[in-house]
């Protein structure tokens, strides 16, 4: 079975969705007049298929069954996710304490705004998954070229995703704690997206009849 729960920074959601689609097609191979991927990518190829709406409904049943099986069998993955998420939260708390102390010593504001807009694609972000005293020297260096620090951490369920942005005159730099992907969350998102996509294809093809 495909690994569809790779951690952030390894696979994007779209890449994980592609793996899921391939895994679904393997699990239902030969059962339908089309594969899931081909129907989604080349729906016009099936505009003349007899009772195409009913055929898509049959496929939707199998797709939903795939997700039900995956979610029900994900208890071990969910347990590991919770353990890893707790470790990430503890690391975020520890790192933030150090960061606050250093920001105070450097007389740089440490703020947690209600909302902060930035283009993350233009930021230089360093991801950490453990604490090392060498990061303290890195923080000192980043503080030298920063006007202030934004606490961009966000809550995730009962955990916390640590994110801090060092705002400079010309460049923002960030430090982020690697946070695990909730396997059930990814599966639910994928199921919802595929359900919407299949319903859209069905409506389009039926409207052409």
Question: What are the main properties of this structure?
Answer:
single chain, 209 residues, alpha/beta, 2 domains, five-stranded mixed sheet, two-stranded antiparallel sheet, 7 strands, 13% strand, disordered N terminus
**What is the general shape?**
elongated
Structural class: alpha/beta
Over the alpha carbons, how many angstroms does the gyration radius reach?
23 Å
Oligomer: single chain
Helix-residue proportion = 40-55%
Our count of domains comes out at 2
- Written as H for each helix and E for each strand, in order along the chain, the element string is HHHHEEHEEEEEH
Rounded to the nearest angstrom, the distance between the terminal CA atoms is: 38 Å
- Low-pLDDT windows of residues: 1-8
Number of strands: 7
Please work out how many helical segments DSSP would assign: 6
Overall pLDDT confidence: 89
Largest sheet: 5 strands, mixed
Report strand %. 5-15%
User: Could you give the order of strands across the largest sheet?
Assistant: 1-3-6-7-2
Q: How would you portray this structure in words?
A:
With 209 residues, the protein is α/β, with parallel strands linked by helices. The chain has two domains: 13-72 and 182-207; 88-177, no CATH class. Helices cover 52% and strands 13% of the residues. It has helices at 13-27, 36-41, 52-72, 75-105, 134-144, 183-207, and strands spanning 110-111, 124-128, 148-151, 154-156, 159-161, 163-167, 172-177. It has a five-stranded mixed β-sheet, with helices on one face. Strand 6 and strand 7 form a beta hairpin. The longest helix is centred in the middle third of the chain and has 31 residues, at 75-105. The chain is elongated and about 75 Å long. It starts with 12 loop residues before the first helix and ends with a helix. Mean pLDDT is 89; it is low at 1-8.
